[in-house]
Write a structure and sequence with these properties.
Helix content is about 25%, strand content about 45%. The relative contact order is 0.18. The protein has a single domain (about 25-190), classed as Sandwich (Immunoglobulin-like), CATH 2.60.40.3540. Strands 1, 4, 7, 8, 9 and 10 form a six-stranded mixed sheet that branches. Strands 3-2-5-6 form a four-stranded antiparallel sheet, with no helix packed on it. It is an alpha/beta fold.
Length: about 190
């Protein structure tokens, strides 16, 4: 192997290492840093990948500042880092096609508080259902639908989520916010870990 090939291989490994470090669980960058975790449960009745993600509209209560955040329905949770501390609400959720465009949008009213240097787990869980429906008039062809609902965070989901978070490299640098600890599903899951 010549010197140029060794340098190229070293650069490739350095680049891959940099990419992996960028996608790891974040650590707090300042005393006011926040981390919001949105629990996600997905039921998939097809292997087709028509839907890319869902877009969540988050609004800060009081001044109505807003941002959009993408949630991957194939992940176990959505993670939003670095929003300023304060009161927020999710006001809308929209499903997106892979090729672009919105499938549907639903109004929401899920309020939560972000506390400095704390992880806040949303008290609601998002349920995605992706199904394949055969076309009646065309055998072998299908219609694909994605539905979304949300409800109170279940203890089983909280337990799985907390186990995943405990395995993350930088989790120990964060605290769970008091409102997260007071959530019944989270407090029961914590007592079982």
């Amino acid at each position: 192997m010549n010197h140029t090939a060794i340098q190229r291989t070293g650069l490739i490994f350095a680049f891959v290492g940099l990419l992996l470090s960028c996608t790891s669980f974040p650590s707090p960058k300042s005393g006011d840093d926040t981390l919001l975790i949105i629990p996600v449960s997905t039921s998939r009745e097809t292997s087709e990948q028509f839907f890319e993600n869902c877009e969540v509209r988050i609004v800060r209560v009081g001044d109505y500042w807003e941002t959009l955040y993408q949630i991957d329905p194939n992940s176990h949770y959505g993670m939003i880092e670095g929003l300023p501390p304060g009161q927020y609400a999710i006001r809308e959720v929209a499903a997106k096609y892979k090729e672009g465009g919105t499938v549907w949008a639903k109004k929401a009213d899920i309020e939560f508080s972000l506390i400095p240097n704390c992880i806040t787990i949303l008290p609601q869980e998002f349920f995605f259902r992706i199904i394949e429906i055969p076309k009646k008039d065309k055998p072998g062809e299908f219609i694909y639908e994605m539905s979304l609902s949300w409800g109170d965070l279940r203890q089983s989901t909280a337990k799985k989520l907390l186990k995943r978070l405990l395995e993350e490299e930088n989790y120990q640098f964060w605290e769970l916010s008091e409102n997260t600890k007071e959530n019944q599903a989270v407090s029961q899951a914590l007592s079982e870990l």
